[in-house]
Structure formats: structure tokens, C-alpha cells
Amino acid sequence: MLSGFDWLRRSISGAELLATMRCIASKPHIFPDEENMGPPLSGSHKPCRRCWIYPCRTSPINDYCITCHTILNRARSLGDVSRSAIVIWGFVSDLPRQLKTREGFRDNRIYSSYVHDHNHFLVMMPKRELKPWLREIFIYHGSDMRGLIQIFSTVGPGSRGNMSDILCRAIHQETRFPMDRLRVRFYPDPYQLFTPRVRDQKGLLTFDGSEFLALLEMAAVFRSLFRPDEQDLLYKVTNLNDNREKEFYWGRLMGILNHEAKDMLSAWKVKQWPKNKIKLLFELTDYVTYTT
């Protein structure tokens, strides 16, 4: 018999992963609770085309078992939702109180959650709810929570990988650190889970929990003070290799920014930042909301 976690690891796309999580929470009866194997594959018989374990539906005739049929049906309406979502896999000393009681989070903060055991949880949420979600975790748990939280995007059907492989890779990475404090690993591209060393060597992957929350706060301020065209110009200027050219265009940039934006750049000393830190700031702007 497959467990709920086994069904999650059969998800091809982010939409299927979200559909499976919601089915586990709201329709547990569709998951087989006893062994009822489908027939072996032959010229006239076949098991479910998706899980290759359980028998296909007979009324109406279908290529899928009742569980896979329900998941796929629900996933069809979740494509747009999953594309704007992030997945969080947590391996922590103690579950967040909000996941234990299902209270505390705003109704729109998460799309769905799955608690695997006393130390592991899976959450899908809108990417721009990440900062308030993390802030709430720190409000309730502070420095008491230890472990690793991994944040990555979803993939769609037909991609070069699938959510099953990506989720399993995140699980594989979870024991790389001692459980002495809370750490966050951030993967804007989910395929970076297969080559984490490249991003880690650039200082773009692993952060203390409070440090990562502070970076999100900085990204929110930056996004609020700079118009999209000003953001693009800043990125181009800070990535110039010729120092004289960089000085020239930096001066032109200062001439078009308002006082608040110029004060921010001066206070943060953005001009002296390494390129990797600039890259991280721009990556995080997709995960925060504009504020006035």
C-alpha cells in the first residue's frame, strides 16, 4: 500500500503535487487502505497508467485508478496556481505551531500543507507570501526552531525534470547540516537542487533563518523604491566590468533617481556590493510585494 508521502512523490508537475496535497487533506477516502493490486501488464489487461500499481476504473472505463484519476482531474485546474507557487520542505526540531493546529496563518497564506512526521513538513504557498510566512514562524518560535528549510519553485508537465525528482533531491539534501540553528536554502531554479555546489560556492544558497528574512525585507524595500525600468538600469550598471564605464553610468543613474532611492543606495553601499549579492537581491524581488 502506498502512503500519502508515496503519492506525493509520484507527482510530475507542481499542479499534481498541489492536487495530491489537497486530496490527502480533503479526500483521504480515495487513497487505497488495503492491497488491491491491478493486473499485470498484458495484451488485454493493464494496471493504472500513472501509478502502475492499482487497477483502472471500470465505470466509466478509464486508464487510471480512482486515486490517480481524482488527482489528475484536480490538477487540471491548478496549473496557473502552481506556476505562481513555491514549495517548502522543512526538516526541523519541532513543527511550526501553525502546522500542528492549522491556526495562525491567514487563509490565503498557503495553498496547502502536509505534515509527514514530527520533524518534516511540506508547504505550497504563493511566492510573495514567503516573507510574512517566515516572519510569523520567527514570531512564534524565535530561536527555538532548528533545522533546515528548503525553498524551491515548481515545474510544469513536459519540463526536463519532474516534481518527484526535485522533492526527493530536497529530502536527500536535508541532513547536510547539524541541527544547531535554523538555516534556509533558497533555489530560485528548482533544477539547482541537482547541482547545489555551484550556487553554494557563490554564497547564494545557504543562509541563517534571520539573515534570509532580513534579505527579504531588503528586497521589499528595494522593489518599493525603484520602478521596474530603474531596477533594470541598476542591474546593468552594477554588472559592468569596466570601472570607468561603471562610474560614468552610475552618475547618470543617480541623476534620474529620487532622493529616497539614492539614500537607500548610499546607506546600503550597493555600489561596493559584489555581483553575487546584487544577483541575489534581484532574485528575491520576485518573492516580495510592492509596498507604499
Protein described:
By secondary structure, this protein is of the alpha+beta class. The chain has three domains: 4-75, no CATH class; 84-201, 2-Layer Sandwich (Alpha-Beta Plaits), CATH 3.30.70; 222-287, no CATH class. The protein is 44% helix and 12% strand. It is built from 13 helices and six strands. The chain has helices spanning 4-8, 14-26, 66-75, 79-83, 97-101, 130-141, 163-173, 196-201, 209-225, 228-238, 243-256, 259-268, 275-284; strands spanning 85-92, 112-115, 120-126, 147-153, 182-187, 206-208. Strands 2-3-1-4-5-6 form a six-stranded mixed β-sheet. Strand 4, helix 7 and strand 5 form a beta-alpha-beta unit. The longest helix has 17 residues, at 209-225. The chain starts with a helix and ends in an 8-residue tail after the last helix.
List keywords for this structure.
alpha+beta, 13 helices, 3 domains, Alpha-Beta Plaits
Give the topology, please:
Elements: H1 4-8, H2 14-26, H3 66-75, H4 79-83, E1 85-92, H5 97-101, E2 112-115, E3 120-126, H6 130-141, E4 147-153, H7 163-173, E5 182-187, H8 196-201, E6 206-208, H9 209-225, H10 228-238, H11 243-256, H12 259-268, H13 275-284
Parallel strand pairs: 4-5
Antiparallel strand pairs: 1-3, 1-4, 2-3, 5-6
Helix pairs in contact: 2-3, 6-9, 10-11
